[in-house]
Design goal:
Layout lengths: L14 H21 L6 H6 L6 H12 L2 H14 L5 H4 L5 H13 L5 H8 L2 H33 L3 H9 L2 E8 L4 E8 L2 H51 L4 H4 L14 H7 L6 H15 L3 H8 L4 H34 L4 H4 L3 H14 L8 H16 L1 H13 L3 H37 L5 H22 L6 H10 L2 H12 L5 H20 L1 H6 L8 E4 L2 E4 L1 H22 L5 H11 L40 H27 L1
Antiparallel strand pairs: 1-2, 3-4
Helix pairs in contact: 1-10, 1-20, 3-10, 3-14, 3-15, 3-20, 4-8, 4-15, 4-18, 6-14, 6-15, 6-28, 7-8, 8-10, 8-19, 8-20, 8-21, 8-22, 9-10, 10-15, 10-19, 10-20, 10-21, 13-23, 13-26, 15-28, 17-18, 20-21, 23-24, 23-26, 24-26
């Protein structure tokens, strides 16, 4: 881009940038090596010894749940949809108050992995099913994070990695979905520049994650959480300085239709070829997210690695609210970038490079009403340029602005960026390797071996999981596409966790039927919508045409697979036999028994020798409903969390109006 021609040292970075990066790498690797000494058994590796307090748990929840691709997706979504792009992360906002309620329940399970819940509440085969499902979720999360990070690192280097990739000309296999043939095809393509960055990042988090386990991840997440906050706010003041101040957003709000609208109009969404970000769409995304969040493999660690229930609930809730505030910063960075790159003083427009000027013309045309009058081929070309520009926007803006301020700022931003993705990926790798080791390998393949044996299996399985994630990220086309996969993937089986906690009638058959029907319906509505459309049984408004292909709108996809999964599970629960009373009593005794500070349990999902007294049920006369009676702490924190939700939305709206 604009500064790519400047003579810097290696890969377009100043020596000060490399010094900052070197210091970051040394500290992180030292923590990983030090943490090896703390790992003595499976609980140490997969749950960090349950020794962490509120601050560490807060930054662990923040770090493990905040990856750089989320910032990049919000900035990219803001570029394409204006202020409404914030909902790519705010969709989780409505679920956040429930974290205050969910965290103590997860901690009371006293489990190492979420699969332990399925085995204790249901049976072994459902635990194995979840283990495979959970590993797939982790692979998807790691792939999405690495994809977004690679794009941004490439942009931060001024696309130097792309030039290196062209020279190297290394060919690799790739899988892609053929929309016409409705099949995946294995093809061959050149290794892209951003994928060199992905490989470098992967090596780093694999080394310290394999060495120190979850303990290393939590300690490094404390450091990386602070750097992620730096990453979220570092660029913001400088990009506003470049455009002439905060008030320029309002003055130049006509650069894109609906640029400062908190909810995108259907017209804007149609122009973008995407779903209208309407209240109903946000509601369905939020419900799907709430169903899926509890089933994500790392959540058991986020809630369970603290000393008591309070550490888990404080860390889970406050850490995620910290992320919501960062989301506001990401969004306004994206809005400022619209003015910076599309305004009259755009560095693209004033550049002497014809390529920059051509990009500027494409971006302006994409935002113009005249775009809809262009031939389809020309529209596709301009839209592709706009999507690619959006995916690299955060890194590109940093590369164009920060070197003008001071040397080393790019290195600080790059270290913060790597911290964000590594803090997420290390947790996903460790927790998913725990699922394989504890619930598949140890119980189904090789039994009764030493702790050392299983520790090494956990480390090696984590490496294999990361390799699979590297393969998966090659199938993503843009940041938003990756995020949609991440949102939808966990929800089908998450339904069974929610019902399993509160309703005794939900049994083993319900888990299988609900999960499998949900997955099958999702596959049908996501990949064979043309056949559903041909039946004529559903309203035309549920479908749209994309590149001459009939697809079902995202919101109706979620209504379909979530609705069928819940309804089928309830029907089966009412028609089939209950589980054994003894198994149910044991599980709900766990759920109603508070965690005692310093308690020691002999094995996952068991009580200590002298447990705390059981809490009371909300409906004591019901033999099926097992909702605990809320305490003052439960209700007070829940209400305060909802106040925080509306305060964040009000703050966002206020800032947009002030602008």
């Amino acid at each position: 881009m604009i500064l790519a021609a400047q003579k810097n040292i290696w890969l377009g970075l100043h020596p000060a940038d490399w010094i900052v990066l070197a210091l970051y790498f040394v500290v992180i690797l030292a923590i990983g090596i030090w943490s090896v000494k703390k790992v003595k058994d499976m609980a140490d590796f997969f749950m960090g010894g349950r020794r962490f307090g509120k601050v560490f748990m807060m930054f662990f929840a923040f770090g493990s749940g905040t990856s750089s691709e989320q910032a990049i997706s919000v900035v990219a979504g803001t570029w394409r949809a204006g202020l409404a792009g914030i909902w790519w992360q705010f969709l989780w906002l409505w679920a956040t108050p429930f974290y205050w309620i969910v965290a103590p329940i997860m901690r009371r399970m006293r489990a190492l992995t979420t699969a332990d819940f399925f085995e204790t509440r249901f049976n072994g085969p459902t635990a194995v099913m979840y283990s495979f499902y959970g590993i797939a979720i982790s692979i998807t999360f790691i792939a999405g994070g690495l994809f977004g990070t690679g794009k941004m690192v490439d942009a931060l280097t001024g696309n130097e990695l792309d030039r290196i990739a062209v020279k190297a000309d290394i060919m690799v296999p790739a899988a892609e979905w053929d929309a016409k043939e409705k099949t995946f095809k294995i093809t061959e393509r050149r290794l892209q520049g951003y994928e060199y960055a992905i490989l470098a990042v992967t090596v780093m988090f694999v080394i310290y994650g394999m060495a120190g386990g979850l303990g290393a991840a939590i300690i490094t997440d404390f450091i990386q959480g602070i750097l992620t906050i730096v990453f979220s706010f570092l660029l913001l003041p400088f990009v506003f300085y470049q455009i002439g101040g905060f008030g320029e957003l309002h003055k130049q709000a006509d650069l894109k239709q609906g640029m400062l609208d908190l909810v995108a109009s259907p017209q804007v969404a149609a122009t973008l070829g995407s779903e209208p970000i309407t209240p109903f769409y946000v509601f369905m995304l939020s419900v799907t997210a709430l169903a899926g969040i509890v089933i994500q493999p790392h959540i058991m660690g986020v809630c369970g690695a603290g000393k008591t229930e309070y550490e888990g609930r404080f860390g889970f809730t406050v850490g995620n609210f910290l992320k919501r505030f960062c989301t506001v910063a990401w969004t306004f960075t994206g809005l400022a970038c619209i003015v910076w790159y599309m305004g009259d003083n755009s560095p693209l427009k004033t550049s002497d490079d014809p390529a920059d000027q051509a990009i500027y013309q494409s971006l302006v045309m994409r935002a113009s009403p005249e775009y809809n009058q262009l031939p389809d081929e020309e529209k596709a070309r301009i839209d592709k340029h706009d999507r690619n520009f959006a995916d690299k926007l955060f890194g590109m803006a940093a590369h164009d602005i920060l070197p003008r301020i001071a040397p080393g700022l790019i290195g600080l931003l790059l270290a913060s960026l790597l911290a964000a993705v590594m803090s997420t990926s290390d947790a996903q790798m460790i927790i998913s390797s725990g699922l394989f080791t504890e619930n598949i390998y140890r119980k189904c393949i090789v039994k009764n071996r030493s702790q050392r044996h299983y520790l090494w299996v956990g480390r090696l399985s984590g490496l294999i999981i990361v390799i699979l994630a590297l393969i998966l990220q090659t199938t993503f086309t843009d940041i938003i596409a990756a995020l949609k996969v991440i949102v939808k993937t966990p929800a089908c089986i998450g339904i069974s966790l929610w019902f399993g906690i509160v309703w005794r009638r939900w049994n083993v058959i319900s888990v299988w039927v609900s999960t499998l029907t949900g997955i099958l319906v999702w596959i049908a509505v996501a990949f064979r919508a043309d056949l559903i459309h041909q039946t004529g049984l559903f309203p035309e408004s549920m479908f749209k045409t994309v590149k001459e292909q009939i697809v079902m709108r995202d919101v109706w996809q979620m209504v379909s697979f979530m609705g069928v999964a819940i309804l089928s599970g309830i029907i089966v629960s009412l028609l089939t036999k209950r589980q054994s009373q003894e198994k149910l009593d044991h599980f709900y005794q766990l759920m109603h028994t508070p965690v005692k500070l310093g308690e020691v349990v002999p094995s996952p999902c068991t009580l200590p020798e002298e447990p705390e007294p059981m809490g009371k049920k909300l409906f004591p006369n019901s033999k099926d409903i097992e909702i605990p009676r809320p305490t003052f702490q439960d209700l007070g924190g829940f209400v305060l969390a909802w106040c925080a939700v509306f305060a964040i939305i009000y703050l966002t709206k206020l800032l947009s109006e002030y602008a």
